[in-house]
From TrEMBL:
<protein>
    <recommendedName>
        <fullName>Exodeoxyribonuclease 7 large subunit</fullName>
        <ecNumber>3.1.11.6</ecNumber>
    </recommendedName>
</protein>
<keyword id="KW-0175">Coiled coil</keyword>
<comment type="similarity">
    <text>Belongs to the XseA family.</text>
</comment>
<keyword id="KW-0378">Hydrolase</keyword>
<feature type="domain" description="OB-fold nucleic acid binding">
    <location>
        <begin position="4"/>
        <end position="99"/>
    </location>
</feature>
<keyword id="KW-0963">Cytoplasm</keyword>
<dbReference type="Pfam" id="PF02601">
    <property type="entry name" value="Exonuc_VII_L"/>
</dbReference>
<dbReference type="InterPro" id="IPR020579">
    <property type="entry name" value="Exonuc_VII_lsu_C"/>
</dbReference>
<keyword id="KW-0269">Exonuclease</keyword>
<comment type="subunit">
    <text>Heterooligomer composed of large and small subunits.</text>
</comment>
<dbReference type="InterPro" id="IPR025824">
    <property type="entry name" value="OB-fold_nuc-bd_dom"/>
</dbReference>
<dbReference type="Pfam" id="PF13742">
    <property type="entry name" value="tRNA_anti_2"/>
</dbReference>
<comment type="function">
    <text>Bidirectionally degrades single-stranded DNA into large acid-insoluble oligonucleotides, which are then degraded further into small acid-soluble oligonucleotides.</text>
</comment>
<feature type="coiled-coil region">
    <location>
        <begin position="368"/>
        <end position="395"/>
    </location>
</feature>
<dbReference type="GO" id="GO:0008855">
    <property type="term" value="F:exodeoxyribonuclease VII activity"/>
</dbReference>
<feature type="domain" description="Exonuclease VII large subunit C-terminal">
    <location>
        <begin position="122"/>
        <end position="431"/>
    </location>
</feature>
<dbReference type="InterPro" id="IPR003753">
    <property type="entry name" value="Exonuc_VII_L"/>
</dbReference>
Length: 443
């Protein structure tokens, strides 16, 4: 037997393959891997199962006709032929057509529905709603038999036991699950006592999670009244619920961490707000005292000693009342805050915090009104005193003499022996008339 060349052997093998009907009309299935698209448009890839693998090629015209988005891990069925690539002597499969099977078909349906709903604007960022900072009540749409609910409740209770949870049970897998989830969501979304809604279940295969791609469910979520968090499957799993929801959580546990703030953070925020309010009140009172001091200085420059003394006493009285009222109010408020902090650590933290903020706001308004009223009263008193002084002129207050309750101005108004009462600036003097002289002559 004469030897033949390698090229002759490969040419003969190719000829044999072309004459075999079965090898020219093969329908195979497997999983795609090692995908590469050449500059020519040809797609090179590998198809494999659990025991073997085979190099494949789909020429540009066939690849464009198949309208496939090649992705590693897709399960496909391919129609084509077996051939030998002579330059490398490699056996390969030449694919003419390709279709998705199993999860691959579901993935294709997922992409088609995602594209449709995205074009309708259901996933637009402008439609996203912000999550509440301190929710009082959280609605949960899930199966009561799954681990997802247990994980969420455990984490939420550890972070803030005052948050209430309302569960709307539903199927999360199998036939009719999508419609069941939509009904469970509507029950919660119709309530006014729910602040945010979590849709969740644990991990699973694409078939298990496909109910969360149900078109009716997605359209229902798009018309929501309350913010929605989607926590379906594991971090690598993606459903259309994730796209339409306001926030996506990687796991049910992550969903609890996103929704429920730690009670320590809430307490810290409340204390910070209280300090801000106290500082603002102190500044208002300081400004009121400054204005009162300025009014006192003006009084000292403009009125008599008698009026100054009276006004200073009135100012001191106002100041003492304001200081006493502020200290008393702050002490009462501090005691109330301590009591609130003790109660808020046990139950209903968001409600207590909200009432506390309302009380602080009312307290601030009351202190501002009282400060404003005190200043207005001081201004009014100053105006009255100023009017009196204008009427009196710039003269100092002179001593005045009266007999009993009648003031006298002439020597003819008294008789010898009358008792005179002389009113001075800082008191009065009593005297008796011993003699009377008028125009140099004794009467």
């Amino acid at each position: 037997m004469n030897p033949i060349s390698v090229s002759e052997l490969l040419a003969y093998a190719k000829k044999v393959l072309k004459t075999d009907y079965m090898l020219n009309h093969v329908l195979i299935k497997g999983e795609l891997s090692e995908i590469k698209t050449a500059a020519s448009g040809h797609v090179y890839f590998t198809v494999k199962d659990d025991k073997a693998r085979m190099d494949c090629i789909m020429y540009r015209d066939d690849a464009e006709a198949s309208d496939m988005e090649f992705s590693v891990g897709m399960e496909v069925e391919m129609n084509g032929s077996v051939a030998i690539y002579a330059p490398s002597g490699r056996l390969q499969f030449v694919a003419k057509t390709m279709e998705l099977t199993g999860e691959g078909a579901l993935y294709k349906l997922f992409l088609k529905l995602k594209d449709l709903l995205s074009k309708e604007g259901l996933f637009d960022m402008e439609k996203k709603m912000p999550l509440p900072r301190m929710p009082k009540t959280v609605g949960v749409v899930t199966s009561t038999a799954g681990a997802a609910l247990h994980d969420f409740l455990q984490v939420a209770a550890n972070r803030n036991p005052a948050v209430s949870v309302i569960v709307s049970p539903t199927l999360v897998q199998g036939e009719g699950a999508g419609a069941s989830i939509a009904r469970a969501f509507k029950r919660l979304d119709a309530r006014d006592d729910v602040d945010v809604i979590l849709i969740t279940r644990g991990g699973g295969s694409m078939e298990d999670l496909f109910c969360f791609n149900d078109e009716t469910l997605i359209r229902t979520l798009a018309e929501r009244r309350h913010p929605v968090v989607s926590a379906v499957g594991h971090e690598v799993d993606t459903t259309l619920c994730d796209y339409v929801a306001d926030v996506r959580a990687a796991t049910p546990t992550h969903g609890a961490e996103i929704i429920v703030s730690p009670r320590e953070d809430i307490l810290s925020a409340s204390r910070a707000r209280l300090r801000t309010m106290e500082h603002a009140i102190a500044l208002n009172l300081q400004e009121a005292r400054r204005r009162n001091d300025a009014l006192g200085h003006r009084l000292h420059q403009a009125v008599s000693m008698e009026a100054i003394l009276n006004k200073r006493l009135a100012q001191n009285a106002v100041k003492e009342r304001m200081d006493f009222r502020m200290k008393e109010t702050l002490n009462l408020h501090a005691q109330s805050l301590k009591s609130d902090v003790i109660r808020i650590k046990a139950v209903n933290l968001p409600a207590r915090a909200e009432r506390e903020m309302e009380q602080l706001a009312a307290f601030k308004m009351r202190m501002v009104r009282e400060s404003s009223l005190a200043v207005k009263n001081a201004q009014r008193d100053l105006a009255e005193l100023d009017n009196r002084m204008k009427a009196m002129g710039k003269e100092r207050v002179k001593p005045r003499v009266r007999v009993r309750d009648r003031y006298i101005r002439s020597a003819t108004d008294v008789d010898v022996g009358d008792v005179l009462n002389i009113d001075l600036i800082d008191g009065s003097v009593e005297a008796r008339v011993l003699s009377i002289e008028r125009n140099g002559h004794e009467l």
